[in-house]
Specification:
The protein is of the alpha+beta class and 262 residues long. The chain is 28% helix and 27% strand. The chain has a six-stranded antiparallel sheet.
């Protein structure tokens, strides 16, 4: 049994072999000219998001990844360092690299902010902070499966309910899907629907944080006020990433509710 694989393996059709084959195919894409380490980091992140590498499981060793993918161990090490900087993995005793364990609560309804606020009986509004074409950050390009230094459409605004600011939202969309930020006048999802690109499914992670002084000023709160940070990654029906949005909610005025059924 090969202990380098993230799951127990006894045959050539093991989940670990499937992961290595997936990574090899991802790195062979001829249309992606980003550095090899970044392409590996993105491919590993996608495998994590889709559950192929379970939370708390070990990644294949640097040696195995380098040998199977025919790349240098330096490139493998840089890819893992990028994932570690994003909080996706951690290094543990014995040089194992483990997918970070986070408690995830599935929220079944894929709706935009405005629909969510209206469903709570309040009137949504917003104030633009910025919108335009920018070079995506590492986190943004990884989330959208784009080469590093790719241009994206970024929309940043303060979201309010009944006139009270409750969240800071930063939405990023590939420029190939949304060519001009000015097309979004109100609802991003309505704009995407008009382009035949409304999200079909997605993943959302929620974590805790506290407000910086700048965030507190925009949300009319005190610095260090608790925040709920929701990171959403959505896809088209054909599997292409269409949206990466981080929404930072004032934790004192907003909560998440989900129906539970037995």
């Amino acid at each position: 049994m090969n202990q380098d694989l993230p799951q127990d393996s006894e045959s050539s059709n093991s989940p670990g072999d499937a992961l290595l084959e997936r990574l090899a195919i991802s790195l062979e894409r001829s249309d992606d000219h980003s550095p090899i380490y970044m392409r590996l980091a993105i491919a590993l992140a996608e495998a994590m998001d889709e559950g192929q590498i379970g939370r708390g499981r070990s990644l294949p060793s640097e040696r195995l990844l380098a040998e199977h993918l025919n790349i240098s161990r330096v490139s493998v090490r840089r890819a893992i360092a990028e994932l570690e900087s994003e909080g996706r993995v951690s290094r543990r005793h014995g040089a194992r690299t483990v997918v970070q364990t986070r408690v995830r609560k599935d929220l079944p309804n894929l709706t935009g902010f405005s629909d969510d606020i209206r469903a709570r009986g309040m009137e949504p509004s917003f104030t633009w902070i910025s919108r335009g074409t920018v070079v995506g950050t590492l986190q943004e390009t990884m989330a959208l499966g784009l080469p590093t230094q790719s241009e994206v459409i970024r929309l940043v605004r303060i979201r309010s309910a009944d006139g009270t600011p409750i969240a800071l939202e930063r939405a990023v969309v590939p420029k190939s899907i949304l060519p001009d930020a000015m097309l979004v006048t109100k609802s991003l999802y309505e704009t995407l629907a008009s382009l035949d690109a409304r999200p079909h499914h997605g993943f959302q992670r929620i974590r805790a944080d506290v407000m910086s002084e700048a965030e507190a000023e925009m949300l009319q709160a005190a610095p260090q006020t608790p925040m709920l940070v929701a990171e959403r990654r959505c896809f088209l029906e054909d599997g292409r990433p269409v949206e990466f949005t981080q929404t930072r909610y004032n934790g004192r005025v907003y909560d998440f509710i989900s129906d539970l059924h037995l």
